[in-house]
Design brief:
This protein has 284 residues and is an alpha/beta fold. The chain folds into two domains: 61 residues, Helix Hairpins, CATH 1.10.287; 207 residues, 3-Layer(aba) Sandwich (Pyruvate Kinase, Chain: A, domain 1). Helix content is 61%, strand content 14%. It has five helices and five strands. Helix 1 runs antiparallel to helix 5 and helix 4 crosses helix 5. The longest helix has 77 residues. The protein is elongated and about 115 Å long.
């Protein structure tokens, strides 16, 4: 009977965990839908603004703005966008592995790290990387103001010549079941020499004012895009992970129930044999 009690307790425990994972899946699904809507609203503007900027760059003198300064790369900044919480499958593991491999390839001594999310901060802090700044506990109240605040620190680190390049590693949202790790160069802004170049533009009011207005706005929008993409990817990954955990719990309950029924049948059979044996012994 002790074995039956143990199996019964395990079934009860698994059912409790299943309720938790099911609730977490529903919460993640609701958050993902809201995050996906915001991300899809921001994507067209970000992409169109990027297109305008990269079409303008070939016709722009880089002396107009510090953000266009292309220098010899002696020190690099890395922005790593992770989450504050786990329970999201391999979401954080993959992004941290990708970022660490790239940083180690450059040399951790010449890399400054900007950590967005607790997982990135804890990962690089334990391994003694140079962390300039970290941002945590803001995802539930995520707003464009957060992107501007983070972007100001990261951009000033470049314009003050502490680093010569800024890289960003984040998860791009593809669909609910798929997220793609991206590694982009945020600064300095460079153009694709093979792309079609438009010449003979007329600038109104003037080229300098347009460049000084558009490029800072472009960088803020890019930071906003990184945050939105990562947040939507996190919720999608958590929803899928919790769905898989719920299904696994269901399979485990079935197996444990089968074990329980077998053990109970064996116990009943043993008791019946004992009763029959006892009755036969009394007859003799």
């Amino acid at each position: 009977m002790a074995k039956l009690k143990d199996i019964r307790n395990r079934i009860k425990s698994v059912k409790s965990i299943q309720k938790v994972t099911q609730a977490m899946k529903m919460v993640a699904a609701a958050k993902m839908r809201r995050a996906q809507e915001r991300m899809e609203e921001a994507r067209p503007y970000a992409d169109r603004l990027s297109g305008v900027i990269y079409n303008l760059l070939p016709d722009v003198e880089r002396e107009l703005l510090d953000l266009l300064d292309v220098r010899e790369v002696k020190r690099v900044g890395y922005v790593v966008v992770s989450s504050d919480r786990g329970m999201a499958g391999s979401f954080n593991t993959n992004i941290l592995k990708k970022a660490q491999n790239e940083i180690d390839a450059i040399g951790k001594k010449i890399v400054d790290v900007f950590c967005i999310g607790k997982k990135a901060r804890d990962h690089f802090k334990r391994r003694d990387y140079t962390i300039i700044e970290s941002h945590t506990d803001f995802w539930n109240e995520l707003s464009f103001g957060h992107a501007i605040k983070m972007g100001d620190v990261i951009i000033s680190h470049f314009t003050n010549k502490y680093v010569d390049e800024i890289h960003v590693v984040y998860n791009e949202f593809i669909n609910v079941a798929s997220q793609k790790i991206q590694s982009d160069i945020l600064l300095p802004l460079v153009f694709d020499e093979e792309a079609d170049q438009i010449t003979g533009r007329l600038y109104e009011p003037n080229k300098e004012d347009i460049i000084k207005s558009l490029i800072p706005r472009h960088l803020n929008i890019q930071m906003w895009k990184y945050l939105l993409e990562s947040y939507a990817s996190e919720q999608a990954a958590r929803m899928v992970a919790m769905e898989n955990a719920t299904d696994n719990a269901n399979d485990m309950i079935k197996n444990l129930t089968l074990q329980f029924n077998k053990a109970r049948q064996a116990a009943i059979t043993t008791e019946m044999l004992e009763i029959v044996s006892g009755a036969e012994a009394l007859k003799k």
